[in-house]
Design a protein that fits this description.
Elements: H1 3-35, H2 41-63, H3 69-90
């Protein structure tokens, strides 16, 4: 495979993985805004299932040589940070002032 083709595949893999991460972020955001609380088993099941699926996609892309393990870890870490922020926004604050 030529270097140009490898570069194109690398960029395509990154684009698709980032799109999937963005879809998960959006799904969880909508779920927290409209449907459930973070303590709901449905929320936890959706989150676990989606994150597992994305991690398997990333693992495949790494094994196929399309991205590095570090890039895959960055995608997951970035999504986890965004989801943690959403979680803090949706968690009721205690009134211990």
């Amino acid at each position: 495979m030529t270097t140009a083709a490898q570069t194109d595949l690398h960029h395509l893999a990154l684009k698709l993985l980032q799109e999937d991460a963005n879809k998960i972020h959006h799904l969880i955001s909508v779920q927290l805004d409209n449907l459930t609380l973070p303590s709901c088993p449905l929320y936890e099941d959706v989150l676990d299932t989606q994150m597992f699926g994305l991690s398997r996609e990333i693992d495949f892309a790494v094994r196929a040589g399309l991205i590095t393990r570090e890039v895959g870890r960055e995608i997951l870490d970035n999504l986890e940070q965004k989801l943690a922020y959403l979680y803090t926004l949706s968690t009721p604050k205690s009134k211990e002032d």
